[in-house]
Amino acid sequence: MPVADTSQLISGVAERYASSLFELALEAKSVDAVGSDLARFQAMIDDSADLKRLIQSPVFSAEEQAKAVAAIVAKAGFSGLVTNFLKVVASNRRLFAVPGMIKAYRVIAARQRGEITAEITSAHALTAAQESELKAALKGVTGKDVAIAVTVDPSILGGLIVKVGSRQIDTSLRTKLSTLKLALKEVG
Hints:
Elements: H1 3-27, H2 31-47, H3 49-56, H4 62-76, H5 80-91, H6 98-112, E1 116-122, H7 128-142, E2 146-152, E3 160-164, E4 167-170, H8 173-187
Parallel strand pairs: 1-2
Antiparallel strand pairs: 1-3, 3-4
Helix pairs in contact: 1-5, 1-6, 2-3, 2-6, 4-5
């Protein structure tokens, strides 16, 4: 299956699961608590190569994935809703799509609150003050409250890549250097 088709499949799976989880969280009046647990689980994935391998590798059986996830969520103390959700995802062999599910859940929750979501890629982690300043700047541009999801990618060297809806602003040093390199090739 080509890469584009795979990413569409993951996106569709992620959106369906996230939508179902959001409806359950809304019913239980725990949208923010579920979002917080999902953010903690994403941080665990980002910080652990072993956990990342567990969710991405097709080598592990559904039973092995479900047991491992059950142990992880029990130790982390997640809410019952998130615990059950992750167990179902693992038993259905959909752990590979969990990062997309978390991202889709954030978007759905933000939309429900009347916010828009901005995806930020930074070369280093942003401080709370920088995040607040960025939210204020984006609110000034969009006219809406903005929820931000920050991803750290040292390969961009510096600056930011900001995606809001279909718009993208790339002020990364990597892109500026690439542009300069192309301009110098044309001159030389």
